[in-house]
Structures are given as C-alpha cells and as structure tokens.
Design a protein that fits this description.
By secondary structure, the chain is α+β, with helices and mostly antiparallel strands. 35% of the residues lie in helices and 25% in strands. It has 22 helices and 27 strands. α4 packs parallel to α18, α13 packs parallel to α18 and α19 crosses α20. The termini are far apart.
Length: 713
Amino acid sequence: MPDGQGAAQAPASRPAPVGRPLLSLTLAAMLDDVHAHSGAVYLLATHEPVLEMAVSAGLPRAFAAPWERVGLSAPIPVAEAVRERRLIWVGGEHEMARRYPRIALVLPYPFALAALPVATATTVYGAAYVTWPGSHPPDLSDREREHLTAACDRLALRLERAAREDRPMRHEPDLLTPTAAPAGTLGSVEATRMVARLPYGLCSLDLHGRVGFANAATAELLDVPVSRLLGTQLWAAVPWLNDPVYEDRYRAALISQHVTSFVALRPPGDWLSFRLYPSTSGLSVRISRARPVSEMTRAGPQRHDGSPRLVTISHVLSLASALTEAAGVQDVVQLVADEISPAVGSQALVVLGSRAGRLHVLGHRGYPDAHVVERFDGLPLSEQTPGTQALNSGVPAFFDSREQLERLYPSRNATPDGMSAWAYLPLIASGRPVGTCVLGYAQSHHFAADEQAVLTSLSGLIAQALERALLYDAKLQLAQGLQAALLPSSLPPLASIEAAARYLPATQGMDIGGDFYDLVSSHGRAAAVIGDVQGHNVTAAGLMGQIRTAVRAYTAVGQAPEEVMRSTNRLLIDLGTELFASCLYLRLDPARGVAVMARAGHPPPLLRRPDGKVKVLDLAGGPLLGIDADATYPTTEVPLVPGSVLALYTDGLIESPGVDFEDALADLGRRFAATGDQPLDELADTLLQRGEEAGQERPDDVALLLLRVRPLG
C-alpha cells in the first residue's frame, strides 16, 4: 500500500530500515485520497518548540521557504493545528488574508488549505498540510476531513512505533517527479514535428520554471536559441523577462492551477503575449505577438495598462515595513495615503474607526469637500452600508462600478462621492474589528482576484498598524492628561513678581516625566520651586506630583526654605521609593530685595541683573532628595533688585550628548544675557529654541521657570 501500512505491520524483531520514505508515502497517499494539489509534512524538532518541514510535494519547496522552520507559537495554520490539536481549514485567499496575513503576503493567490496535527493522545510528532487550487469548494467535505484525519492518525502511530524502536525519522526528498505520459498518445518524434509546425511559440516548464522543451517559433519570438533555453528558467535565460512581475505569474499559475497570462515588451518595441497552462507536473506556455499597446488601451482596462498596482511580493513587503513605522493614527492615515493608495491606483480614501457600536472618521484624503465623508461619522454599525457590512462580516467588498454598488445599496445614490469604483476593506486586528478602510477610484476599476487578495492582505496589516496607533494615541492622551493635572495650569498673579514657565516632555518614551515647577503665594511672600525626579515615566510623574503637593503644604504652614527641603526629603524616604529627585526652592522677599534659596543637587540658577550681566549663582546645598534622612540643606541669600530676572531650569535644558555641562551652561548664559529684555513669555520660548532648531531628540524632560522682579508700587 502506498500509505505505508506495511511499515505498521512489520514485526518488531525486524524493524523497517532507517530512511524508508514513510513520510513521502504518507504524504503522497494523502494528496491522492483527497485530490489535493500540494502539501508537506512537518516533524517536531528535538528539544525545541519548532516544526521542521521534513518533506513536501506538488510544488517547489522555495514557494514555502519562509515556513521551513515554524515556531509553535507562530500565527500560521500548521502551528495552530498543533497548538489546538484540531484540523485547521482555510477556504480561500480572502480567508487566508484575514486570518493569516503573513502567508497571504507571500502567496496572494487563490488556493485552499487544510492543516492537521500529527499526534497521538499523549504525544505530538508534527503536523501536515495539503492545498487545493482555488476552484475547490469553500468548505471541506466530510470525506476529505475523514481521509486526512485518518492518514495523520496512522502516521502518528507509525512515528510512535519508530520512536519506541529508536528509529529516527529523517527529512526525505521532495515529491516533484513528473507524471508519465498517458498511453496511446503520439510518440515523441511525431509530437515534436507537430509542435514545430505551429505558428506560435510553445514551450514546457517544469515545476521549478526550467524549460524542458521549446519549438522553433519560441526561439524566434524570444530571440534566444533553443539551446540556451533548455534546462534554464525562462526569466533567467531571457533578460527582458527577468522581472518579479512575470515570475509572480508563474507562481500564481502553479498554486492556483488556473490559466494565467501577461504581456511583456521585447525590446525595442515588440509586445508578446504569454499564456500559462498549469498542471501538477509543470506548465505549458503559449507565446504569440500581442496587439500594439495603443489598441490594448482603447480596448479598455488591461492588467498591464501602466496603472500602478501591487503586483510584486517585494512591493507588498515594503509597504508592510512602512506600516510598522507609523506611531499615531494620523501617521497610519498619512502612510496609507502616501504609499498604498498610489500603489493600487486609488484616488481617494477614508479610514474609519469603530468605537461604541459606531463608525468614526479617523482621516481621509482625496475628497476636496469634507462633507462627502461626514456621512460616515457616527454611523451605527447596524446600518446597512457597504462599510458597516464589510466590518460586521469581516469580508472585503469590491465594487467595479457605480451601478454595481447602487444595485446592492440603493441609498448610496443619494450621497455621491464622485468616485466610480470602491474597495471596502475591513480592518480586523487581534480578532476584533477596529475599523474600515475605503479606497475610491475615479474611474471604473476591475479588481482581479490576485489584486483582491493583496488588498485584503494589506487590510490586515493596516488593521494591526491602526490598532497599535489607537493604543499609542490613548496612552499619549493619558500621559498628557496626567502631566497636565500634576503641573500648575497657570501661575498665580503676584504684585511684585512677573513669572513665565514652560515644560517639554522627553521625545523618547511616553511624553511624560518627573520635571516640575510651581509658584506659591503664602504669608505675603512668594515661594518658587523647580525639581527633577529621576526618570521620565508614569512612576516619576506620580512621585513628582507628591513632591509638588508636599512643597506646597510645607510652604503654606510657613516653614523656612531649609525646613521645606528637609521635610520633603524625609517624605521621599518614608515613601520607600527607589527614585531620587533634585530640587531648588526659594522664598522671594521683594520688600527686602532678597531671595533665600535652598538647593538639593539641582543645577544652579542664573541671575540677570538690570544691566544685562548674567551670573551663575553658586549656592550652598545638600544631596539629592531621597538619599539621606539626616541631610541638611543650608540656605543662601541672594540680593534682588527691580528688573532682575531669575532663570530656574532642569538639566534637560542644557545637557546633550557630547556637550560639556560647563560649556552648555555658558552658552545658556550668553543667550540669556542677549535676550533677557524680552517679555518673559517670549524669553522663555527663546531659551527653549536651541534643541528645537537643531532638530534634536530630547532625551530628557525640560522645565523652565522665569521670575522678573517688578519695581515696588
């Protein structure tokens, strides 16, 4: 029996020899039993959660090269079959694109697939899959299911016996032997004479694309001798056919087992038509002269009419890579508009999000009148529209013309958008709907099967990018809201002090950090504080809020500057956090013309006198807050005269990689001296411009507090 039952019946005393093609025989029998086109058997690697392809059949292994070794956690059918211990059925290219976009990206062709575990009740030995051409019915029949399950169960038992007998299973040669010629056909000599008389080119390719036969007309049309064609791949022997587009047609024909065709330009100006007739042993290619391009254009839209289309795997993968770079929702919309829409030839798009049972417009391009897309915003998912139907069903919808769309959705006639063809792509990520992408075409557009498959694959990638972007935007909104709540919304007006403040989060991370500032009026005097909690994350921001609240409370009860610092230090230690904080606290007394300052490991403030001279204030101080419970923080009294400006800042304003701290501080002082007469709000923006002008990333948060002493009265 070809399924290897002899191996199962072999006596234990005479085990089957190592290397017997058990896997090949089983796979061949499976394909034959269910009339499948191709398949493979995987074995579980030793001491590794990986499935390794042991033998394949029906198609070159290169077609499945990305999946020769598959992790058990990989989102592909054979791994899922092992994880869930059940048969996995994928009924066509649309379902493949929706459930397994990684496979659909590389093989965007119409075919069906079944994957099964090879396992006993206690042990998994591997997995197997088989494929059928796209003409297979969308459902797996009971007979096919029973045959496949029984074959995998028998194989598991034989692998179990081999393991008990210590007979390791080895990888086996792939089954690509062409079938023998049917009896009763013409002999090879007469067949060759007949083909030689044909007025068009005819050649034969094996499963690897190598030329096995070519008639004289083929050599004449391709302008390549037959001797150079034989034994080589067609696109390798003919330089102007060396294009991924043409190789893609060969792959499409073999996998789908459908006749495919393409038109290619033979330099300098002759167009040739290639028609590929596939079988399980290879392809027959008919080559003839094509009509002039001008005639093909007049005849209507053609597959190779020069319009931009996603026809190569490398192009699709490039777009997929670009999608991974999108951070926010608007980045995704912009990328789809800039990269995907031009590639598929669409002139307009709308990206819709799904929230609370309604669609919401996340972004759109190509519609001069924004009112055209407003009808989508807030649309209940229960409405019968192409966008909601695609999202609810998870099945993309393609409409070649306005008549086709309005026949199914008459209500669209009342809300024209100026387009003549549409692709409605459901965006499904992590098993849940996140939105719909609508591509609009200004002219009627025929969506070929492979184009539909590629667009469906891209919709899965867009959905994943959109899901990440929505999460990113939500986190960003949360971070910005938390930061805004922890920092003062405005500075209190003081009769003798003018103040301005700025805060910029680090550009690396969550746009949230531990830098803080505050200005407090208490007991007829003003107190100012600026500080920097280690880190720029939620933990640092939360601790910053506690410190700022504590400083306010200690100031309100009238503690002196050194006491405020000691109390805050003890609080930080009592909280048990492992984070430290720098801080600068000062009590302003304009009536006496002084400021009393206490410092805890913070960069020194700058004082600009009315004459424009800037001084770096060398203050006494103590260690960072949160290190030593017994630390003291001596104070320094600094004279202030009307017109003086104090600049309090965190180290993010001056520190940058490769720049000495002293040099950066001197540069800040020079800019402060040159621009210090500006209104405080303008001055704050000026002092922040150094890093922004250089286009640098901010590795740390920046806080800046400016205080100008007004004349009394």
